[in-house]
Amino acid sequence: MTQTHDFILKHIQDIKFDLINLLQAESPSLEKDLVDKTGDLIRDIIHKRLGSDYICTVHPQIEYGNHLQFEKSDTFKPRILFLSHFDTVWKKGELPIRVEDQLLYGPGVFDMKSGLLSSIWAVTSLEKTLDTLPISPVFLFTSDEEIGSLSSRDVIEKVAKTCDAVFVMEPAEAHTNALKTARKGVGIYKLQVQGVSAHAGNHHEDGVNAISEVANLVLQLEELTDYSKGTTVNVGTIQGGTLSNVVPEYASIDIDFRVTSSEEANRIIKRIEQLTPKNPLAKLTITGELNRPPLERNTANQQLFELAKLAGRRLNMDVKESSVGGGSDGNFTSALGIPTIDGLGIPGDGPHARHEHIRFDLFAERCALVAELCIEYGNES
């Protein structure tokens, strides 16, 4: 057992206290008042566990919750960005908090308040067991990841550019507990068709059926899915029409696509943006973008994983890696060329599901893994 692991185990009840408080401070993405109150609690936890030496920089937002950054001003070691979000998909009161044996259930416990807290306690263990920190910690806690990081992306990229590596505290892969060394990129598009309305019985030939046009587009889009490349294109919603006896003048679809590489992302974007209506009298409007670039399994990211494996050996852990379909804020930092490793959070299951939970019995060793990874990185630098 390492010093950090021993320290964390001795304070496991304090950790549980902090985590329950974080879960009770519910933070639905679109409820700014609630999210900001959670941010205030995080600031209290930082100062209680790490001390007032960690200076808080608030990145204020009008529509969404404020983003919070903490770091020491007098540490001149390699800068490691601990990246987490504290917004959740759950409405206030929608999901109860409960403990069953070693499973802890609650809103955002897996995705990703336990991982956020783990980063704080990992650095606390280093502060309390070592004479000097091996790294210079930078914490960034954002408030809108679950709705696409609309206001936080610029902040994330700006802060990440000042750092040497990024540790993303999203949860480990469910069931395998593997770290995430690759994530798919995510594209979001909306296609809107403006047709011409007409009476379906008397003047059907005068109409331009927007739903028919959209249906033709759906077939073309579905053909872009290529499982051999890891590419999926999903038409997730469709809207249109008013009454069955009216040729519909408007219809729209929402598209989600996932890709494993920037090259594939560019190919899919080009195909989507070159779509045209079948009827020349219909007007097609295409809006959207690549919301998150892929987190690719490149050399720099793999070097971080190799350090994580070494850190795991100090804890008698067999650290594994995986590639997953969902995106995270680590996609942004990796695309900038900054070494990024994801999935350092606490094992569990049920992201965005009513059975969302973590394995609290694994908290200490996973938290210690992050601490030991910091030591390995410091030794390597």
Order of helices and strands: HHHEEEEEHEHEEEEHEEEHEHEHEEEH
Query: Helical stretch count?
Result: 10
Number of strands: 18
Mean of the pLDDT scores?
Answer: 97
**Major pleated sheet:** 6 strands, mixed
SS content category: alpha+beta
Output the strand order for the largest sheet: 1-2-6-3-7-16
State Rg. 23 Å
Q: What's the structural domain tally?
A: 2
Notable features of this structure?
single chain, 381 residues, alpha+beta, Aminopeptidase, Alpha-Beta Plaits, 4-stranded antiparallel β-sheet
What would you say this structure looks like, in words?
It contains 10 helices and 18 strands. The protein has a 6-stranded mixed sheet with strand order 1-2-6-3-7-16, sandwiched between helices. The protein is of the alpha+beta class. It folds into 2 domains: 3-184 and 294-380, 3-Layer(aba) Sandwich (Aminopeptidase); 185-292, Alpha-Beta Plaits (2-Layer Sandwich). The chain is elongated, with a radius of gyration of 23 Å. A hairpin with a 7-residue loop joins strand 1 (55-59) and strand 2 (67-71). Helix 1 packs antiparallel against helix 10 (363-380), helix 2 runs antiparallel to helix 4 and helix 8 (299-314) crosses helix 10 (363-380).
